[in-house]
């Protein structure tokens, strides 16, 4: 994650938010968050989702961002402090091995589960997106909201923009072919999908099935 460590201070300026911000603005309202909810933001980066999430969960809720880059988190913390978001906490950890113990310092009690999780443009650049999803789902209550926002090559007429989209993903370190929402959706019900920016930005939002996928432990099985 050297790349994000190096560009942390400039990330918000260079991350093409006018193109990619549409994904978070679509996903967050679709999560159906309520005041007081606890929400986990995996691969939170500089915290671009935090104001949107915080508007939904209010002062009584909790937003916990997890990222592997301490420098990205420093930017996120600074922005949250400046905005007076006291109930936003940031944890430096590898999302593919995230455990409940990692989140103690963020104000998550030993028996607290999250009401929702969001991954925006993060799973497709992880070495083990399935592992990151498994780790997150162990921290969710049954029926929790789950949102994945990620990228694929543009479709239809927008296919002409494929070289630009591929270049953007290469620069970001993302695998444009990963389609990480496919694995996540296997554990969800009531899935809704949006295909934005000529199909390049994919949004998938659903609810965690109470029993999980056949052959897998129940979502809230504790143990890390
Ligand atoms: C493209 S940025 C997206 C940041 C933010 N979610 C957004 O929407 O702007 C991807 C982020 O994922 C983080 N990341 C990548 N692999 C990770 C891992 N294994 N564990 C935690 N964070 C990771 C990077 O450090 C980076 O901040």
In short:
The chain is of the alpha/beta class and 224 residues long. The protein has helices spanning 2-7, 11-14, 17-30, 50-57, 70-83, 129-137, 162-172, 181-185; strands at 38-42, 62-67, 88-92, 114-120, 140-151, 188-196, 201-208. Helix content is 32%, strand content 23%.
Write the CATH architecture name: 3-Layer(aba) Sandwich
Order of helices and strands: HHHEHEHEEHEHHEE
CATH class: Alpha Beta
Q: What is the third-level CATH name, the topology?
A: Rossmann fold
Strand content: 15-25%
Present as ligands are: S-adenosylmethionine
Any overview of this molecule?
- The protein has 224 residues and is α/β, with parallel strands linked by helices.
- It has a single domain (2-205), classed as Rossmann fold (3-Layer(aba) Sandwich).
- It has helices at 2-7, 11-14, 17-30, 50-57, 70-83, 129-137, 162-172, 181-185; strands at 38-42, 62-67, 88-92, 114-120, 140-151, 188-196, 201-208.
- It has a seven-stranded mixed β-sheet with strand order 3-2-1-4-5-7-6.
- It is globular.
- The protein binds S-adenosylmethionine.
- Residues 1, 4, 15, 43-45, 48, 66-69, 72, 94-96, 120-122, 125-126, 172 line the site of S-adenosylmethionine.
- S-adenosylmethionine (SAM) binds at residues 1, 4, 15, 43-45, 48, 66-69, 72, 94-96, 120-122, 125-126, 172.
